[in-house]
Amino acid sequence: MTAIHCHNVSRAFDDVVALRDFDLEVPVGTIVSLVGPSGSGKTTALRVIAGFDMPDAGTVVIGDRTVVGPGVNIAPEQRRVGMVFQDYALFPHMTVTGNVGYGVDNGQRAERVREVLDLVGLAEMADRMPHELSGGEQQRVALARALAPEPHVVLLDEPFSNLDAPQREKMRRDVRIILKNAGATAVFVTHDQSEALVVGDIVAVMREGRVVQTGPPHVVYAAPSSPWVASFLGDSVLIEGVASTGQVETFLGVFPHRGREEGPVDVMIRPEWIHPYPDDGGDAFVVDREFYGHDQMLLIELPGGQRVQSRIGPRPLLDPGDRVNLGVDEFVVFGK
Amino acid sequence: MKRVALAVVVLTLVAAACGNDDGAGSIEGSKITVYSGRSEDLVGPLIEQFEHDSGVNVAVRYAGSTELAATILEEGSGSPADVFFAQDPASLGAVALADLLTELPPELLEVVPAQFSDSNGRWVGTSGRSRVVAYDATRVSAADLPTTEDGFTDSVWKGRVGIAPTNGSFLSFVAAKILLDGEQATLDWLKGMKANASPTFPKNSAIVAAVDEGQVETGLVNHYYLFRRKAELSDVVAENHFFEVATAGSLVMPAGAGILASSSQQAAARAFIEFLLSEASQEYFASETFEYPLRPGVSPYEGLPAIDSLAVPILNLSELATVLDRATDLVTEAGL
Amino acid sequence: MTVQAPIEGHNDPLGAEEMATTARRPRARRPPWWLWAAPVLILIPVLVPVAALFLRVLGATESAWATLFSIRTAELLVRSSLLVVLVTTTSLIVGVAASWILVRSNLRWKSVWGVLVAMPLVIPSYVIALSYLAASGPRGLIADLTGVGLPVASGLGGAWVALTLSTYPYVFLITAAALRRIDPSLEEAAAGLGAHTWRAFRTVALPQLRPSMGAAALLVGLYTLSDFGAVSLMRFDAFTRVIYAQYSGRLDRTPAAVLSVVLILIALALIFGEERTRGRSAYYTQRPSRPLQPRTLRPGARAGAITFLGVIVILGVVVPVSVLVAWVVRGASLGMAVSVDWGAVGGSLVASALAAVVASAAAIPIAVLAVRYTNRATRWLERSVYVTFSLPHITVALAVVFFSVNFLEPLYQSLALLVVVYAAIFLAQATGSARAALLQVNPNLEEAARSLGKGPLAALRDVTVPLIWKGLLAGGALVFLTTMKELPVTLILRPTGFSTLAVRVWSAADELFYARAAASALVLLLVAAVPMYFLVIRNREYVS
B130-251+320-333: which CATH number, 1.10.10.60, 3.40.50.2300, 3.30.450.40, 3.40.190.10? Predict the structure, then answer.
């Protein structure tokens, strides 16, 4: 079942196009990460879904109701869409309870507030004012407030960008767990590809106003639809190759090829797909090493002078000057 | 202080007299609106007395007589006013000529001599003010004063005559002069006064003060300012001179009142005018405002010549309205 | 064959541009229609009559031209312009000097001085005029005390002094705020290069102050052009006085209407002229990089500064107040009835409070429209609010009287109409602070409320209004204060039997009953001091 369906949504501000033929489907109960560089239209998409912005064309269906479309334009307050803002947007003149209970009907308010605060782990903060909370706590209150009226869908706009790095990683996990425990459907907007991969059940990559690829995080990461998506979602080594039937020839060697591309192609390899095997007689050597603790990133030069990156575990530790042979596990071929 | 007390006593006596009147009972509790061109300081106590005696509630709009006349003209038959109580006959005349005043019953008109009311009976004079020359008796002898205002354009009077060219009573005098002597003669006279560098003042009271303080030797004013000054100060050296030839300069200008034809409170309005013409009110004008009472048998303030001994020009007072704006034009044109 | 380095940032060329558009991204939703209701209901009773005034004058073209000629409009124009130029010049000099001393020097008791220097804001121009009239002249207070009578302070000189004292506080407040925003390091750099204090001020601070001085000059110019009370009492034939004289002295009201139209055109020309010459600089403000380092004054300069501030405080506050007190005392000792007209006190309080409430209430939707729904229509709304504020009050009063007697009869001479006109002409003050307050409110808060199922009205009530409440109060206090001081509109539009302290002061002073006028004026000052105190306490930044 689909919770949100955006179809051919377009939106331009003056002469800048924010969304063009934007399509997105969000299945019920899933978290979709909407990721793209700044200016790719993610936030506009979220605002269109929430009803704060009106598209120039296209339709948006929430649940089984068209909220925007030809002749239809449902007000934001009638869409049952919870929103978590980048700056949390907590009402500064209300307590935590006041904030969380604001969207709940009088009858169930006290009970529901308690329930949601328990869910986000802030039961003891109920009487605090927003400015008395830490960034992470404010974040949870914002999430609790959005969840309290039991919306069809929760929209999160760059929710972690105001947190420092350690808090951020914790909140990613926590928010995911909270959303899952609440059984919520969510769209989560970020420009940070690792955040998108960690939080989303599904990742939708946006570029210049449209979704260019959708899929589970591991699929989008391992099988990007274009070199751009590949490099956007993580480190990538892009080399040139020549494809013929059954094989692709590159300076790293000849790989088996099942695709239909022929002639000059681009071959994308993630650094962790490249394995250096220490060998004093190897024809490549390590130029530089960045050591991260849990892994190390090597810059390796081939006999032809080309350089590639390789990411391997912390051991064995390779030093600049060490000679190696290279092996490649996986690769992706893009036609030119 | 003593005089105020006296006035109150007198007014109370009148009240008793009014109480016997047949009409008074039926109007008690009604409400009338009076547009008063006479200032609150002058007639406020009188109106309070009327409210007290008659039980009629009076709302008063105080402003300049001409302003109120223009207001009534603009309001037309929708005017909220019931009574127009004006400082000068020109304003009353303007409203009368527009057929907005109703004809007064003979018993009101008969109280005062016909020359001080509208010839068609649409307003009645309530008190009179004579134009005079105020002069500094220590420097000028009455015998040296000219016989009419025309003499003041002679160069011997250069810089020695104070006038208040923008003041309402001066303008009424100019209007009368237009009717009596014609426009050209009036303009010539005004230009003569200008050429004679007559010092100008904002109002009559300032002229009288200036004369008394020796700043200017003479001034064209109304008669009662001198008496007001004498009531406040003991060593007044200024005196009044009444022209013995009947010209605009010796005009007795009545203040008066009329009833709006559109008024739905005709009875209460008539009671108000009847009150103004009562002996007590006429005494009030004589003793408090130092004006001429117009009701025969009530004597003017001591030291004033009897009204029928004055040389008063024959004039249809309502007609002043037709030339009032011309008077303003001529004063402006003469550069005063 | 190349190896592409991993992408670090995303060098989308659109990025920066898009960020910029996001900042001024219009809210795409149309404002709910009812947001327009209050502003339109408030502004229409003023703007439609003003438009009708133009029609009335155009309809009477021939006599209109005759009028323009016969009342020597050109002379009037010269006199009014002369007064505007004189007052603006002195007011700028005094205001800028005072603000520089109080922002930039290390003078002691700066906050006390600040309050004193801003104090004449509470004193209406006609009260200042009244006090100088009552002090001078052969029967004046000074003559009484010393036996030597000064010449009567009246005419151009009197109006110049009274209006300079009434307007310099505006210059002071505006330029003091601007001075605080200028980065002092520029001035210090100039000083480091060997420039003297004066030279550093002239070459560095002054050019940066120019935009705010332009705004202040416009305000003072419009104030002077519109002032009715001071020029009337000082008997200086400026436009407003002649308009009133024509209105009250003639049966035919066309001349007053014609002159009003001319005066409105002059005021509009001033506004749009200033708008065109201002360019964009006036909108450009900086934040100082660090707190100001007050400049240490040499002993001579310090004495000069204290003398200067002392003189303006004496002229602007001490003289008016003590003259009023002295007249009341003198009047009472002579046995005159110097009583307070409680009806007028009540009238002032009721009318000012109602105007403050109405203006503040109307300011809410206007601020929301202007800040949250910026588009061509809302920009025009803001501009009409500003233009209404700039219209000379006497012309508004005449226009409304002409219009209401003919087309709005049920409202003619009603308190309701008077209050609406007050609210309209002072609306800009209420919207100014409401707008500033709303700019501080995160728009996401309102959207959060909407996404939580609340309609726009509920979001306004629960979120926006509670958060801009203080701004609304400050704006309301300002409207209350200015309504208390207002004269020509009250004089012409008040209901029959309704009086205010301002009217009492004016009519008594006009009749030369100075003791009575002084008593009403003192009560007026006392009542007006309440909102002023509130404003000063709230807006401490006035006084560093």
Answer: 3.40.190.10
